[in-house]
Amino acid sequence: KRRYADAKDLLADLERARRNSGSFRTTRISGLPAFLRGRRRKYLLPALSLAAVLAIGAFALRSLLQPALPPMSLSPFTAYRGEETQPALSPDGKQVAFVWNGEREDNFDIYVKLLGAQSPLRLTESPEFDFCPVWSPDGSQIAFFRRQRDGIGIFLVSSLGGPQRKLGRLEGWPQGGGPDLHTGGFSRADWSPDSEFLALTDQRTPGESSEIVLLSIRSGEKTKLTDPPPSHHDRNPAFSPDGKTIAFIRALSIDVADIYLQPVSGGAARRLTQAGEHVNSLDWTADGKSIVYSAGSFEQSSLWKIPVTGGEPQALLFGQRSWQPSITGSSLVFSQFEREDDVWQIRLARSPDDPPPGAVRLISSTKRDTNPQFSPDGTKIAFSSARSGTFELWVSDADGSGAERLTYFAPHNTGSPRWSPDGRHLAFDSLASGNYDLYVVSTEAGPPRQLTTDSASDVRPSWSRDGEWVYFGSNRSEDWQVWKVPAGGGDPVQVTREGGWEAFEDRGGEFLYYSKWRDTDGIWRIPVAGGAETKVSDRGSQAAWAPAREGIYFVSSRETANPVLEYFDFATSSVKPVAVLDGSHSLGLSLSPDERRIAFGRFDQLNADLILVENFY
Prior knowledge:
This protein is mostly beta strands. Helices cover 7% and strands 44% of the residues. The strands form 11 sheets. Strands 1, 22, 23, 24, 45 and 46 form a 6-stranded antiparallel β-sheet that branches. A 4-stranded antiparallel β-sheet has the order 2-3-4-5, with no helix packed on it. The chain has a 4-stranded antiparallel β-sheet with strand order 6-7-8-9, with no helix packed on it. β15 and β16 form a beta hairpin. It is globular and about 85 Å long. The protein starts with a helix and ends with a strand.
């Protein structure tokens, strides 16, 4: 007891010394208790240990007395039939604006729903596609985009509903075209905290780099904010809570993107993430210290959090296929998708008297199966599938049976299979190296062989008719062009000069037909031996066309609700419909060698609901 009392006196001396000097190590303590004099080594360490224990105990007691933060909770915010997507929390955190295709799943409009309410309020009823709602800072208005015949319009509507006012339009989008809701290719706008501007993605003409611009709410004038390098696209801007910084996604391709930060007042953009993957949406935390974003392929998309000062991202364990985060205060809402793609087949009519062709399901699983390609002899089909967790190459019999896995690149997405003329190899693209490169794999045995190694994206391969070359699309020349590389390896050679993305030689090996980058409709050709470019058709778009002996089959969705399989005849330059494809076309279109069957990918099931996270800190 005496030593304990002396120790208490010592602690009091230590505390007074700490107040006077601020450091135990630099303070000379006089007047040690008598029992410590001459025996400092024996008793000083236990005394200091006791001091540490008491200090820790005091800290723990203070922590216990402080109110604990409520636990984070997740709950469904919507569970309607169809797709609810692109959520935006109101400034007061009490409402969510979102896009929904309705009970009939027939058209996307803007809705608003109160937290705790059962039914949403429908704000728009246009027969056109409305998307990407964003709240004004005072919560009284909502800005959104509308896909129209003449491009993408920018509109305002009261958050209570009523008339809509058009602010302007986005430049560079083709008529009837626009961002893809299902891949994250859309770009959300954001309202500046001072209510003066909308930050949004725009481009001067199709094919050019898209940039972030500020649209004046009062005048409608646009001011350029970011300056992306050639072949890069800036999208999904989001103002920091103080309005001084804007975060955005800079993408080299749909699957290679990172987050950048830039002062609104001007200056260089600073790269925040280093993943180089499919980053598709983002928002700031309420304190402005972190960014929450979604990244990964559709099958593996998930939410992450990273400090704006940089560092390692933290995974938010909300499940896969989670994206489009929106944050207000301590509430977070995001969209979660469930999607199934299957491979379908149409048997083409052989004569005018044959019944109209109908589509039948050919390859199916509970995951995505897409990008089918008939083998040269018509007995096999190569396709890409996520049935193993990530996209890999699979090969089945022509009737869809006996599917076997051919590649093992997980967790890196792999796809776009193309048969060699002898049917013994497949060329394909993969993210295994960190960006898209080309590979070749034997259909019989052996590991894949990497064919290109450039830091750019090399995609959508196809073989020359003699099997000596592999064509592909690449942005290695700062814009998308068709290139070719020796099938056995070697230096790539640029083929097109005026744009190109996906190419196929005709069956006689005389001409090379190709489509161009994302938002440019049409099919072009050049002689395989070299020569001038000629536009063949105004129809046709990437990953949705296939050459035939005397024409081109392609999928068109510009004029009708459902995609239409059409045929362009070289001799007459006419287009005729072949079949209506119920549902949405996915990736890939392949014509069998006997030209009697067409295989294609189709969205068979797509559901999306909104998830609410409360007490998110």
